[in-house]
Give the backbone structure.
Amino acid sequence: MLNKQQAMIAIHPYLNFAGNTEEAFRFYQSVFGGKFSTVSRFRDTAEASRLPHEEQDKLMHIALPVGRNTVLMATDALESMGHHLNAGNNFSLQIEAESTEEADALYRALCEGGKPTLPMMTMFWGTYFGMLTDKFGIQWMINYNFNQSISI
């Protein structure tokens, strides 16, 4: 359990789509307004060579700030990369931690009785990141941005 002096920056919804993330986020942008703060395509990653040509322009990550403290984020969860979407696994909650220590503590606490899916590690996009499913079946992403001045 975290002590009262530890505080997360925010919790953000992270959505998974079956190849139509861009269409969905253009719709959400028309509803909520604003500008995308991040748009990353699979073609720009090391994974590009594993994908069929027609999937390389799909979105690896997109972020749309919604309101003062919430960012709606998503990815194209591609079957060619082993993803199979069902109701219940089409979203995660992402926690923005304030330190790597807090990220590790949250990861350990939420993993208790659950299932780790990706251990906490420094990722190629420059954050400290991990994923898990808790004992209630909720998917979590824990993230610490080394450069806190950049909002994701």
